[in-house]
Amino acid sequence: MKEIINNIYHVGDNECSVYLVDTKSEQGLVLIDAGMDLKMIQQIESNGLNFSNIGHCILTHCHIDHIGICFDLQQHLPHIKFYAHELDAIPIEEKGHDQRTAASWYGVRYSPVKLDQTFTGEKTVLSIGEYNFHCIHTPGHTPGSISILVETHGKKVVFGQDLHGPFNTDFGSDLNDYQASMDTLLDLNADILCEGHFGIFQPADKVKQYIKFHKKQNQP
């Protein structure tokens, strides 16, 4: 586990990158996506954080590599709350959507979880401790993809999972939506980008370079 900036961590990579924000409050730790490896998340104990203090998990979209262990997390942490956009809610909350979740790609079964809150519209702000999590609808990869903006210590940190794609009709991908979403992210002028598979990009010029590159590569 690596600290990216004060209280924001890269937990590790197991099919996708998992990130964590320590709210330094009674509301505990916030996961950004869950991944597919429970032990990877449990190892935060070796870095001085308490696994049992994970109280929230914001899901950027419905793909199995990002939501695979949500059910296991819920078994270990009955108090945990899950969040996602309403347009990706059904594949998260129900069985039988192996194409949408890409579970069929991985040859695994997905065990659904109930979302505590579904986001609607273009932006929802979750206030957890002293942190505001701006959950911004950025469709393209999936209909309900979101990116999350957190401002801390004078820096804008964006969790933009899977900005590179891939794009597939099974996922409900839409490249026109994607282009508009990338413009939305560019307008944020983020200082740090935490991506889902290709690492952490900073400072701001490298964030923009990464987004612009993939925007150009994925034209309708």
Describe it for me?
With 220 residues, the chain is an alpha/beta fold. 26% of the residues lie in helices and 30% in strands. It has eight helices and 13 strands. It has helices at 38-42, 64-67, 70-76, 89-93, 98-101, 103-106, 175-188, 204-217; strands at 2-5, 8-14, 16-22, 29-32, 54-58, 81-85, 117-119, 123-128, 131-137, 146-152, 155-160, 192-195, 200-201. It has a seven-stranded mixed β-sheet, with no helix packed on it. Helix 7 (175-188) links the parallel strand 11 and strand 12 (192-195). Helix 7 packs antiparallel against helix 8. The longest helix has 14 residues, at 175-188. The protein is globular. The N and C termini lie far apart (37 Å).
Task: Give the gist of this structure.
With 220 residues, this protein is α/β, with parallel strands linked by helices.
Which labels suit this protein?
alpha/beta; six-stranded mixed sheet; globular; 26% helix; seven-stranded mixed sheet; 220 residues
